[in-house]
Design a protein that fits this description.
Distance between the termini of chain B: 56 Å
Number of strands of chain A: 21
CATH architecture of chain B: 3-Layer(aba) Sandwich
CATH superfamily of chain B: P-loop containing nucleotide triphosphate hydrolases
CATH class of the largest domain in chain A: Alpha Beta
Radius of gyration of chain A: 21 Å
Helix content of chain A: 25-40%
Largest interface: A-B, 25 and 20 residues
Largest sheet of chain A: 9 strands, mixed
CATH architecture of the largest domain in chain A: Alpha-Beta Barrel
CATH topology of chain B: Rossmann fold
Structural class of chain A: alpha/beta
Strand content of chain A: 15-25%
Shape of chain B: globular
Oligomer: heterodimer
Number of domains of chain B: 1
Strand order of the largest sheet of chain B: 3-4-2-5-1-6-7-8
Structural class of chain B: alpha/beta
Shape of chain A: globular
CATH topology of the largest domain in chain A: TIM Barrel
Order of helices and strands of chain B: EHEHHEEHHEHEHEHEHHHH
Radius of gyration of chain B: 19 Å
Number of strands of chain B: 8
Largest sheet of chain B: 8 strands, mixed
Helix content of chain B: 40-55%
C-alpha cells in the first residue's frame, strides 16, 4: 500500500510548465505513481482546489541546522534549503552532515562552505580589511577542497564582510569550485551604493575560471535604484557565455549582523544610512529603531545581533529582479528566536506567489513554480528534486492559490515570524511536515551531499 | 616586487591637470625615470599630448566588455618614452566610477606591469569635480602616495580644490597622506597672493606656481609637450624643476581646509581685491595692483 496519496490536486509539471489534475502516489519517500485513477494509501490528502508543486528550494538561506529556521522554512513551503551562504558556514563538513543526520531535521539541507567569515577565520585572518597571506591562501584552499570532497555544494562568498579579500584570493577558491563543478554564490561588495564594478570583478573571475555563479539576494545589493542596470550587465554576461544565475527576495530592507564590516561607521557614512532607518531585529533591543548611542552599544555588546536597514521602498525593483528566467526566489533566512528576525524568514515564498502570480501576473503560476523548484534543482544538481515525476523525491508543497498570503511583518510593527496562510500540506521525502496548515514537527529531512 | 610612486593630479576640469601631468611625465622620463601616465576622462585626452595621433583604447571600458583584459595590450609607449594608459569612463548614467582605479591598480599588480615596465612613477590624471565617496576611494584606500591638487585663479577651481582637499583629509584623517597644491596661471593677479595666504591659513604645501607661458600654450595647441620643440624654454625648465621637486620626499603635514563660512569670507575678500584692482584703486593694504 502507498504511504501517501495526494488526490485531485492541480499538479504543476515544472519541465513543460503545464498543469493538470492528477493523483500522486508516494512510497518510501519517492513518487511512485502519477495517475488519473483513484488511489488508496495510509494517508490520503484531498487536494481538490489546491496547487500541488514540487517542494520549494531556497537557494539562499542560513538555516545551517537551526531548528526554528527549519520550521519557518517548512511552513512557507520550502522542502530544501541551501545553507552556508554569504561566506558563513561550517568548516568540518563530515561532522556537520553526520550531526544533522543523527539529530534529524524538518527539511533537506544542502550546504556551502563559506569563504568570507568561515574560511578566513579558520585560516587565522581576523581583520576583514586585510588581504590573505600566501600561507593563509593555502590553508583556505585546503579546507575548501576538504569541504567539497565531503559534499559541500559550493563555495559561498560574502565579499561585503571581507572587503580586503583580493582578486587573487577569490580566484583561487573559484578555481577549486569550478574544478568540482559546484556553485559559487556571491554576496557582492559595493564600495558605494552604485558600485557596479562589484559585478564586474566577479564576472572577471568567472571568465577566468569558468565557475558557475549565483549572485545572492540581488535586490539587497542593487536595490538602491540600479537593479535594471545591474540586470543588463548580467544579461550581457550570460549572452557572452558565462554561467550565471541570480537569487532575490521579496523585500527591499536588508539585514545583517550589527558587528560586521557592512555596518562600520565608514560604510554607514558612505551610503548615507540614517540610524533612524535601522531596526534591531534580535536581542534585547528587538523592534527598536537605532540612534547613535544604541548603534554603538549594539556594536560593542551585541555584535551578533541582527539589524535591519530600511531603504526607500521601490517594489518594482523586486519584481524586475525576479522576473528574468535566470532568477530564483530566496529568503536569506537567518537564525532567530521566536518573535525575532525579518519577515523574509517566514513570508518570502508565499509573498512571491501571492504578489507576482496572483496579484500582478508578472509570472504565470507554472513559471513562478519552475523558478522556485526545478531551476534551483538544476543549478545545484539536485537530480531527484524540482519535478513531480515517478522516481523523484516526494518533496511536495500543496497550497491554495486563492488564499496564499504572508503575514510576517517588520519587528517594529509586530511579529516577523508570523507563519503564512494558505500553505496546506508540505511533504518532505513523503512525510508531512505541515498537515492541514499545521506544522507537525516531524523530521524527515536529509542532508544533501554533493556528489563527486 | 617593485613599488612605483603613485601621484595623482586632481582638480576642476579645465585647470590644466592633463597638460601639467603630461609635461611632468616627460620631464621625469628625461631625468631618467620610468613613468606610466593614466587618465580616466571619457574624452581619453589625458595623454593626448604624449601619444599624438596614436589611438588609445579605453581599458576599463574594454574590461567591462570582456571581463578579462591584459593591461599591457592597452599601454602605449610614446616616442618620448612615457607609457600611457587611458581608462575611459562610465557608460553615461550607469553606476559610479568607484573602484575603477582600484581594479586597474590590482590588475597592474597581478599582471606585474610595474615590474615589467620597471616603473618608478605612475601619474594618475583623475577627472571629476565632486569629492563623493567614489571619487575619494583611490586616495582613501591607499592607492595614491601623493595628491597634487591643481587650481588656477578662478573662484570655482579654488572652491573645488578646497573641497577635494577636505574630502581627502577626512578620508585619511587616521592615515595622513601627502597633499600639495600646484597653482596654474599663478602670475594672473591676484592668484599668487591669494593662494599664498590660503596656504598659510590652511597649512597646505604649495608644490609650485606655474605662470602663463605662451610657448606652453602653443605646444598644447600643437598637440605636443613643451619638450618637443621648446625644450630650452622657461616652461620646459619649469617642468624639469617640477620633476626634481616631485622626487623629493617631504614631511607629511595634513592641511586644514576652510569650512563653508570661512570659504565665503575669503571669496568675498578676493572678489573685492579683484574689483579694486580692475577699478584702479591704489593704496589698499596690498600692493599687487601697483
Amino acid at each position: 500500500m502507498l504511504d501517501v496519496a495526494i488526490c485531485k490536486g492541480l499538479v504543476i509539471d515544472t519541465k513543460k510548465q503545464t498543469k493538470r489534475i492528477v493523483n500522486i502516489g508516494i512510497k518510501d519517500g519517492e513518487i511512485v505513481c502519477i495517475t488519473g485513477d483513484d488511489l488508496t494509501a495510509s494517508i490520503v490528502i484531498d487536494a481538490q482546489g489546491l496547487i500541488v508543486s514540487p517542494g520549494f528550494i531556497d537557494v539562499h538561506g542560513h538555516v545551517d541546522g537551526y531548528l526554528y529556521s527549519g520550521e519557518l522554512s517548512a511552513c512557507q513551503g520550502i522542502t530544501t534549503s541551501i545553507g552556508g551562504n554569504c561566506g558563513l558556514s561550517p568548516i568540518d563538513f563530515d561532522d556537520f552532515f553526520n550531526c544533522q543526520e543523527k539529530a534529524g531535521f524538518y527539511i533537506n539541507q544542502g550546504e556551502l562552505v563559506g569563504h568570507s567569515f568561515s574560511l578566513r577565520q579558520a585560516a587565522g585572518i581576523a581583520n576583514p580589511y586585510r588581504r590573505a597571506l600566501p600561507c593563509e591562501f593555502d590553508k583556505m584552499k585546503y579546507m575548501a577542497r576538504a569541504a567539497l570532497d565531503a559534499g559541500a555544494c559550493g563555495i559561498s562568498f560574502g565579499l561585503d564582510y571581507s572587503p580586503g579579500a583580493s582578486y587573487e584570493e577569490i580566484t583561487a577558491l573559484a578555481t577549486i569550485c569550478a574544478e568540482f563543478d559546484r556553485v559559487m554564490p556571491i554576496h557582492t561588495r559595493l564600495f558605494t551604493q552604485n558600485d557596479l564594478y562589484s559585478l564586474f570583478e566577479v564576472l572577471s573571475i568567472a571568465k577566468r575560471t569558468g565557475v558557475k555563479l549565483l549572485f545572492s539576494h540581488f535586490v539587497y545589493q542593487y536595490g538602491s535604484g540600479i537593479t535594471v542596470d545591474a540586470l543588463e550587465i548580467i544579461e550581457k554576461a550570460i549572452r557572452d557565455g558565462l554561467n550565471i544565475k541570480i537569487d532575490s527576495g521579496m523585500y527591499m530592507d536588508w539585514l545583517t549582523f550589527i558587528g560586521t564590516a557592512t555596518f562600520d561607521e565608514q560604510t554607514i557614512n558612505d551610503n548615507e544610512i540614517r540610524f533612524s532607518d535601522m531596526i534591531a531585529a534580535s536581542g534585547p533591543y528587538k523592534g527598536q529603531h537605532l540612534n547613535l548611542e544604541l548603534y554603538r552599544l549594539m556594536r560593542q555588546k551585541y555584535p551578533n545581533d541582527s539589524v535591519i536597514c530600511c531603504v526607500p521602498n521601490d517594489a518594482k525593483q523586486i519584481y524586475a529582479a525576479l522576473k528574468p528566467e535566470y532568477a530564483m526566489p530566496s529568503t536569506d533566512i537567518g537564525q532567530y528566536l521566536p518573535g525575532e528576525g525579518h519577515p523574509q524568514i517566514a513570508g518570502s515564498f508565499p509573498k512571491y506567489i501571492k504578489e507576482m502570480v496572483r496579484e500582478r501576473h508578472d509570472l504565470t503560476l507554472e513559471a513562478a513554480i519552475y523558478k522556485a523548484t526545478l531551476l534551483p534543482a538544476q543549478t545545484f544538481h539536485l537530480d531527484k528534486k524540482g519535478q513531480i515525476e515517478v522516481g523523484m523525491d516526494a518533496d511536495l508543497t500543496i497550497f491554495n492559490l486563492n488564499t496564499i498570503k504572508d503575514t510576517a511583518v517588520f519587528p517594529d510593527r509586530g511579529c516577523p515570524d508570523n507563519k503564512p496562510e494558505g500553505m496546506e500540506y508540505i511533504l518532505v521525502n513523503g512525510v508531512p511536515v505541515v498537515y492541514q496548515g499545521v506544522f507537525t514537527g516531524k523530521k524527515p529531512g536529509r542532508v544533501l551531499r554533493a556528489r563527486k | 616586487m617593485k613599488e612605483a610612486k603613485k601621484i595623482c593630479f586632481l582638480g576642476k576640469g579645465g585647470v590644466g591637470k592633463s597638460i601639467i601631468a603630461s609635461n611632468l611625465s616627460e620631464a621625469l622620463v628625461r631625468a631618467g625615470h620610468h613613468v606610466l601616465q593614466i587618465g580616466n576622462d571619457s574624452s581619453l585626452s589625458s595623454t593626448i599630448l604624449l601619444r599624438g595621433f596614436t589611438d588609445a583604447v579605453p581599458a576599463l571600458e574594454e574590461y567591462r566588455r570582456n571581463y578579462v583584459i591584459q593591461l599591457a595590450d592597452y599601454i602605449i609607449k610614446t616616442a618620448s618614452g612615457v607609457y600611457c594608459l587611458e581608462l575611459g569612463s562610465l557608460e553615461p548614467g550607469v553606476g559610479c566610477m568607484a573602484r575603477g582605479i582600484q581594479i586597474i591598480d590590482e590588475m597592474m599588480e597581478m599582471q606585474a606591469i610595474t615590474d615589467d615596465l620597471d616603473l618608478d612613477y605612475i601619474i594618475y590624471d583623475i577627472a571629476g569635480d565632486i569629492p563623493c565617496t567614489g571619487y575619494i576611494l583611490p586616495m582613501r584606500d591607499g592607492i595614491m602616495d601623493t595628491c597634487i591638487v591643481v587650481t588656477d585663479g578662478s573662484v570655482t577651481s579654488f572652491v573645488t580644490a578646497n573641497s577635494i582637499i577636505a574630502g581627502i583629509v577626512k578620508a585619511r584623517r587616521s592615515a595622513p597622506i601627502s597633499i600639495q597644491m600646484l597653482v596654474n596661471y599663478a602670475d594672473r593677479y591676484p592668484t599668487r597672493s591669494q593662494l599664498d595666504a590660503y596656504a598659510v591659513t590652511t597649512q597646505l604645501t604649495i608644490l609650485d606656481y606655474l605662470d602663463y607661458y605662451q610657448r606652453l600654450e602653443h605646444s598644447e595647441l600643437a598637440g605636443e609637450t613643451i619638450f618637443v620643440s621648446q625644450s630650452d624654454s622657461k616652461a620646459a625648465l619649469f617642468f624639469t624643476g617640477l620633476a626634481e621637486k616631485i622626487t623629493v620626499t617631504k614631511n607629511i603635514i595634513m592641511p586644514k581646509p576652510l569650512g563653508r563660512n570661512e570659504l565665503f569670507r575669503w571669496l568675498r575678500l578676493w572678489k573685492q581685491q579683484s574689483l579694486d584692482q580692475k577699478s584702479g584703486v591704489i593704496g589698499g593694504d596690498y600692493s599687487g595692483n601697483i
